[in-house]
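User: Before I run my own analysis I want an independent prediction to cross-check against. Here's the chain; please return only the structure tokens and, at the end, one sentence I can use as a sanity check.
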Amino acid sequence: MITQATITDVAALSTLINSAYRGESSKKGWTTEADLLEGIRTSEDELTTIITTPNHYLLKFTCDNKIIGSVLLIAKQDVLYLGMLTVSPELQNSGIGKQLLKAAEDHAKLLSLKTIQMTVIGIRKELLAWYIRNGYEDTGRRQPFPFSEKDKILTDQSLDFIVLEKKILI
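Assistant: Structure tokens:
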């Protein structure tokens, strides 16, 4: 079941998101950043801010009362930004990510937004290909990776973002 996350979900979401993106646990899945970056992906404080900020939506995918997926959606003028799409590493390739993408599209329609936009690290070719198979297109725009003090870079390759978009029929 996909529903909007609340403050009571913050600890579980933090554990899930960090385990799916970075560290040894993330290597059980195919969407890991563990070979590129070290450090936490997000904090409980950041997630609390997201959940309590207007026009920010953090959806959670729950099964048997456990959060096993999530996606961040931010309504920005005429675009819905999609970020931090997360599926538990052990459950990746089971269709949960596609269901979260569908929920994002439904949310865009609910807000009357015709475009979903996201950024993906350009060297993550397999992940880019997955989004393209799911209807997203490379806009040709690039953005620098927003490094923070919590990130430790593990690669010499550029971590610039590729901006992807998908048009939604309302």
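Sanity check: The chain is about 25% helix and 35% strand.
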